[in-house]
Amino acid sequence: MTGVLTLYRTSVGKKVIMALTGFLLVGFVVFHMYGNLKMYQGEAVFNEYAAGLRELGHPIFGHEHLLWVARLVLLGSVGLHIWAATSLTIQSRKSANANAVSGVQRYGQKKRQTGYAAYTMRFGGLLILLFIVYHILHLTFGFVGYAPGRFIAEQNGVYNAYNNVVYGFQNPFVSAFYIVTMVFLGLHLYHGVWSMFQTLGANNFKYDKLLRGLAIFIAVIVTLGNISFPVAIMAGVVRLG
């Protein structure tokens, strides 16, 4: 029992935490992108979708109660994901320094620490974290990215999410930041989903191509879907009625 409770301290335990929280977060970004596609069906459909999110679990749960539970779970998952990633990075560096002192460090080992994975997962992860903070302040609370009076918390008893998204992405700097972040999110998703399968023991050579293809598919679909929103608004394809 003690071993189970202290598993989180080991590198294996931290990798499992990263994989499980990653699974939740991947599920969220896929669902989030899919839901936002309703933007292309018009203002009424998109606002109905946004209102439906606020009434999830009704009548058992009150207005926005389950939505806030989901938000807290997701924020907790982000925190655990970052903690596990940071801990593994620190542990890896300590191990590399110890090997360097003992003279057993190998070139391949050093290359793995500073290559593609390090760039997309660490630096890309930091950018994504900053984006999450901005995204919440932007489209959830409307604290940034809007001209005075443009963020509509409620209009005639209806939360007009469609107007907020269109107004928000009419700013070219906001759209550019969003697009760049989505590219890094795609790289993060590809490497993260592939690593998640390996950590959870699904790396049988018989299924490697299938799982790698699934990782690529998820990364490409989410990236292109999310990038399409600011591009469509900037191009006038999605506009206010």
Q: What is the number of strand segments?
A: 0
Indicate the overall shape.
elongated
Q: What would you call the quaternary organization? A: single chain
What share of residues is helical? over 70%
Q: What is the structural class?
A: mainly alpha
Written as H for each helix and E for each strand, in order along the chain, the element string is: HHHHHHHHH
Q: What is the CA-atom radius of gyration, in angstroms?
A: 21 Å
| Biggest beta sheet attributes | none
Proportion of residues in extended strands: under 5%
DSSP helical segment count: 9
As residue ranges, the low-confidence spans are 107-114
Query: In whole angstroms, how far apart are the ends?
Result: 61 Å
Number of domains: 1
Q: What is the mean pLDDT?
A: 85
Secondary structure: elements and pairs:
Blueprint (H helix, E strand, L loop, with lengths): L1 H4 L5 H26 L6 H12 L10 H38 L4 H8 L1 H25 L20 H9 L2 H28 L8 H27 L7
Give an overview of the whole structure.
The model is unreliable at 107-114 (pLDDT under 50). This protein is mainly alpha-helical. Helix 2 packs across helix 9 (208-234) and helix 6 (116-140) packs across helix 8 (172-199). It has 9 helices and no strands. It is 73% helix and 0% strand. The chain has one domain (12-93, 119-234).
Summarize the structure.
The protein has about 240 residues and is mainly alpha-helical.
List keywords for this structure.
mainly alpha, 241 residues, 73% helix
